[in-house]
Write a structure and sequence with these properties.
Chains A, B: It holds the Pfam family TetR_C_1. Chains A, B: This is TetR/AcrR family transcriptional regulator. Chains A, B: InterPro entries: Homeodomain-like_sf, HTH-type_TetR-like_transc_reg, HTH_TetR, Repressor_TetR_C, Tet_transcr_reg_TetR-rel_C_sf. 2 copies of one chain form a homodimer. Chain A has 253 residues and is mainly α. Chain A has a domain of 44 residues: Orthogonal Bundle (Arc Repressor Mutant, subunit A). The first copy, chain A, is built from 10 helices and no strands. Chain A is flat and about 85 Å long. At the A-B interface, helix 6, helix 7, helix 8, helix 9 and helix 10 of A face helix 6, helix 7, helix 8, helix 9 and helix 10 of B. The structure holds a DNA duplex (19 and 19 nucleotides).
Amino acid sequence: MAEQGTTTARRRVALTREAIVEAAIRLCSPEGGGVLTFSRLGKELGADPTAVYRHFRDKDELILAMTTVMVEEAVALASVDALGPDRWRESLTGSARAVRAVYLERPALAVLAAVRTTASDVETSSVEQIIGMLHGAGLPVIEAAECCRMLLDLTLAMTQSSAAFLVLDKESQAKDDAAWSVQYGLLPEDRYPLLHQSAARLTELFRDDAQVFELVLSTFLDGVALKIERARAEQARTERTRTEQARKGSALG
Amino acid sequence: MAEQGTTTARRRVALTREAIVEAAIRLCSPEGGGVLTFSRLGKELGADPTAVYRHFRDKDELILAMTTVMVEEAVALASVDALGPDRWRESLTGSARAVRAVYLERPALAVLAAVRTTASDVETSSVEQIIGMLHGAGLPVIEAAECCRMLLDLTLAMTQSSAAFLVLDKESQAKDDAAWSVQYGLLPEDRYPLLHQSAARLTELFRDDAQVFELVLSTFLDGVALKIERARAEQARTERTRTEQARKGSALG
DNA sequence: ACCTGAACACCGTTCAAGT
DNA sequence: ACCTGAACACCGTTCAAGT
């Protein structure tokens, strides 16, 4: 009998920063309703909506704290399979998928969080780890850092875009969906022969943006692989030159 | 003396769909204030805020109309330099940059528009054109369509992300900026040697997300180039086989 | 037929008052 | 020290009333 009262409000929880953040994150998941307002948050906590202001300066500060928690969860999930430099591709793919999955569990938060920076320790060491992996694979440090940042931006941006669609009310979602289906179904073959030919695939991709993300990720990583190959070739070339010069030097000396 | 009255409201315009959309788009640009509300829109039109409801069912319908206009502008700008299949890379780069530029001129609209679909004719023919170019470069039609969709999603997602930051109030922007600078400046070298080494570059990339976009775009297109090479090689292989079989057939016949 | 203005529900936020 | 509840400014939207 931990519960008391007959209201629809959730169990009364001690109002701490952590309890508030936890409740707020819960509200952002589809099961929690997918909307974050002070009114709903107050009900979830069994307290007055404005009580939250005793622990957070404003909504922005609350969102920042929520984001930190979510990022830490994503990083923990992502770095589980931190494989060696020879398997950088699988590692990066796994990390990107983990971030996306954790974010899409709370679309309403993902939309709010994607822009904001959270300077958490665990995130920092994860970035260091990724740079190390790419560097170990053959990329100069600066270039490795660039690739890490690109992957992060790319993943967050596309995830946020998916989240934004999930947050739309059902009506708008249906409107968008219908627009695509109808449009691609009615394309005149003589004016748009190629679109007509690929309409089925394009409709499929629209319905499932996880697939688009996988394709983009794979294509992007192909580009990274190319950078690594080039870097290795360059390194091999300079080493060969150095060896030759050394040989020449010893021959002359 | 076209102007009259002493209010801060703009010139009184005949209330048509086009006039409303034009005014609304203007409000979304930084010069226009960068915020779209019915109140501000009414003032801009010199009419009662609720007068807009005589021409648009709700705000969503207005945003859809605004998005259509902006997309058409972007497409017009993007297809100016539609070069041949041999220069697909420059064409796609130009298109992506054009879309990004047009969207970032009205960050407040970009944020609202990025998810919504607008089935405009001019957009359709632009997509057909891009698929044709990639197909001409050697990609099978379906794969060309996939690449087109990937590029579009990628560009819109990253552009929307940049727009979301521009829409943040100055205070939050400064907070984010400070967070990055401080964090990367204070990283202990012994724990984060690689991050310490690339801190300057990472800070630069954070400050200038146009640069990140260019890098991602280039890396992604490297991946597309690889797909094209593979497709060409595959095609050459099957053609050779067919020729050999034809030769064998004629030798046997 | 089109525009106006009062009204409503909802949002984030403030502040004086309670315990 | 922490929570409550009335109040405020602002938002999108509705609707009866004007012309």
